[in-house]
Amino acid sequence: MRVPKRLGEEVLVLVNRLKIADNNLMVQRDENFIYVPLISRPTGEQLKTLKERASDCRVSTRFFPERRKREASLAELLEGKLPTRLLASLPHSADFVGDIAIVEISPELDSYRNKIGEAILKVNQNVRTVLAKAGAISGTYRVREFTVAAGEPKTETVHKEYGCQYYVDVARMYFSPRLSYEHNRVACLVKDGETVVDFFAGVGPFAMPIAKNHKNVEVHAIDVNPDAVEYLKRNIRLNRVVGKVHAILGDAREVVGERLSGVADRVIMNLPERAIEFVDAACKSVKPTGGIAHFYGFVNSDGSLESVQRRFAEAVERCGRRVDEVLYSRNVRETAPHEWQVVLDVRIR
Asked: Which has fewest Cβ within 10 Å: 101, 194, 262, 321?
């Protein structure tokens, strides 16, 4: 599977999820493309799924060298160190933020937390710290507590994503590497000359690629967390987008009312728990001639994308505006059993 470099990370994850990656062969790269070895030609449905994420991907023939000796899996490293019955409960995935791996360790494995952490360090050579989740995301700032399972006792790192770099402290501000595709997707939709208002900007994962990928844009990046805004300012300098991204500390509704009324061609609303409460601010921020909102929310098995669209449209109408068109909608990721984060790209008039 040939794919442009900028989409390589997303396609690598997807072909593994579709179980068509040939992990016995080495991924190849050249100046413009990444070549992912496949065990078979994708079915029509699989190819459709791939092209939804990366329309420029192509199936081609290429020689791939074999991988070097396979690294031992987490379960293999811990065999004999944990009771056999517990091996099936080991974490099956991790979030990698810079050189930090974040895992969820079940209560029954808590006494083996450090052994599991050390094994994760061995499996992932680029990881310096393993953090175990010690609570749910909570509070106005959407942060959670962690315990150090292995490695350096730290929560700050530098994360790289689609050509941008981010200073981030995972214990003091919200950041999800699982949204990397969305960060890049939205950035690619922005047009030169636009003014963008990012309501819940965090350390800038939407703002940075927008500013770096476009010469003539202005991004007003708002967040209520003072720690996140300080890191956002650092990231503006780190990514050399001074003058294009403006870091603003405050509540999005208040900031719009004070200084950003009627300026936005595009509004980003990535606060799934509460974004619906800020539709009035989004309508006020969008230019009188209209604009686009990227709205993120949650839906469970009792709901649907259509129900989210209706709810958003009704909220817009209560503000004296209307939804002209739903440009795009999809499930972004599963966040809990029978619960998904969803996105709507909506044109507001």
From this structure: 262
